Amino acid sequence: MKTFDETIEQTLRQNSEWSGSADELWSKVSSQMQAEPEKRIWTRKPFLFGAATAATVFLAFMLHTMITSVPPDVPQVEEIAPFQTFRIMMLEEPEVYLPGEPVELVLSSYPMTETEPSQSPRLFIWRQGDEEKMLAGEVLLDEEKISGQSSLVITSPVDPGLYRLVVEGSFTAGEQRFTVFAEKTILVEGEISNENDEKN
Amino acid sequence: MEINEQELIRRAKKGHQDALEQIFRYHLDSAIRLAYLITRNWATAEDAVQEAFLQAFRSLDSFQDERPFKPWFTKIVVNKAKRTKDRLDRGHLPYDLEEPNPHRAFAPEEHALEREGVDALFQAINELDENHRLPLLLKYVSGLTEAQIAETLSIPVSRVKSRLYVARQRLKKHIAALEGGGSYEDI
Predict the structure, then answer these.
(1) Closest Cα partner for A119 from A82, A163, A85, A83?
(2) Identity of the residue in A30, A101, A104 whose CB atom sits nearest the CB atom of B17
(3) Which residue of A has its CA nearest to B73?
(4) pLDDT digit string, tens, across residues A131-178
(5) Alpha helix stretches (DSSP H) within A15-161
(6) Residue A78 and residue A87: Cα distance in Å, rounded?
(7) What ipTM, to 2 d.p.?
(8) Residue A17, phi then psi, degrees to nearest 5
(9) No. of H helices and E strands in chain A?
(10) Per the CB < 8 Å rule, is B122 touching A102?
(11) Helical (H) or strand (E) element with A142
């Protein structure tokens, strides 16, 4: 006689027989691995690209304003940027993740001008509370891991909630210094439903 | 994975296609079964598994070689399957809900009675709420340990044990009611 464990296992096995083709699925996965990530930003997330472009234009405008109207020895960009970018990008629909799941951030980089402040790249983790946002974490990133990369993979926060992830800073590639930037809004899921159910 | 998983992961991180393909083929069966049992639709299950492999392979650099791959990957599969199921439930995907499994096959010699029992048990499993069904699927389909299930669902091991216990009790009650008193031995 079968044990209950064996019966459950058999039942689930008999009701999940897949007749698809592993070769076909592998060819889809491998071809997408080769095609992306360059393609993905243009085709699957046009809104993200638009937002990144808008952010770049905004930064360029800020730089231009600084150069033309502010004395060059007192640049204040780093104090303003996190708040402004956070507010702008909260309009984007958050992507949903489980706690501790890998999150991919698409990095944008461009050559720095001489007036831009050079600072080590950092990941800022903003958490959106009921009424206000707060800085939940700040991580110094290794320049070598950022340099020349199109994306950065991090682990989602453990506590459920709405987060804004922002990467800002600069790195050196060859003899040129580059500014790097990335941002993404994510929703970290909590437990699904009520715990009282277990006590029944 | 009986073959040297760590070595395979190391090679995959360096971009070796054959290593990626071996990982894919080794984990495909349990991943697709799990995704189907969560979404109840083959097309969305295939989409979810495809997305899960892509995300896992792109995130391999962040994966620590010394840890087992399966719980980490299963967590991604669960998340992708739940997400595609949500989209399906909201009518955002052009597939039918609760698609019957056309691939299910019983051996010819199998008793009609046993088939009825399997159908009843499967129905009972599907009637469990998600908190109790998911740990059950992770144990019996993915073959994860209780500690690995806890890590995958981000809950304490004690809660996994309690949910598995409650789920099994409910299944036993359901089957006993259908069979008019017959019961499985407690394990």
Answers:
(1) A82
(2) A30
(3) A101
(4) 677 888 888 888 877 777 778 888 888 888 888 888 888 888 777 777
(5) 22-35, 38-43, 46-69, 77-89, 143-146
(6) 15
(7) 0.82
(8) -75, 120
(9) 6, 8
(10) no
(11) none
